[in-house]
Amino acid sequence: xxxxxxxxxxxxxxxxxxxxxxxxxxxxxxxxxxxxxxxxxxxxxxxxxxxxxxxxxxxxxxxxxxxxxxxxxxxxxxxxxxxxxxxxxxxxxxxxxxxxxxxxxxxxxxxxxxxxxxxxxxxxxxxxxxxxxxxxxxxxxxxxxxxxxxxxxxxxxxxxxxxxxxxxxxxxxxxxxxxxxxxxxxxxxxxxxxxxxxxxxxxxxxxxxxxxxxxxxxxxxxxxxxxxxxxxxxxxxxxxxxxxxxxxxxxxxxxxxxxxxxxxxxxxxxxxxxxxxxxxxxxxxxxxxxxxxxxxxxxx
Length: 300
Description:
The chain is 39% helix and 16% strand.
């Protein structure tokens, strides 16, 4: 076969240049990305969570201590910097077909786009479930796993229905985050608000202000609110930080004297899953199952 100049020129163009593309929704709006990218970097734990659930191999990940259920996924991939400081040299060598950023790596979307097509898949705010669902759909479209995506969303719907059934008539709830000796409360319009709105858990104190880091509260506040249930997120445990554990922080007469304390209805959630990978399909499913189990599911 005789190679012409045109043939040689075409051969020099990366195969990805001829690949089909798909349009998806991202945190920044509609975006066109390569279809079925082969080498993928994900710099967001919620994205890694959902991609893993879809059976997508992630080749590059950030250097971070992940929730236990994602440990094997991260261990099997190459480390390409951190969430805040990607290793651009390593990324250039890897030459990914797609980079998924979001959350703490959101500020790096523009410089990462100089290396490879990059999408912002941040999940944040009080509509976490809706955003998480949208990401499942988008990734399913990108990687031609739409049937698997539909199955995951059907499982999520079923799990939420079970949780709503379990929550019915069980009283109200207060969501607390501890950080060392400090305590913050979160309402239905916060980052953890979906536990109220999607799972049917009435708020013990509906007047909490919407705050990114929750509303700082005292033990006296918790005693006055007197919730039937307290769901606890331990930030220190989530990020592997040394310090006072949530159970120690909340071990005092004021908290113990609440209805939740007296009825053994203080639930310590898997904080790393909820805090670090919030919005990932596995994260949501795991948290829902924890809450349903604690409430006592009648959907057997």
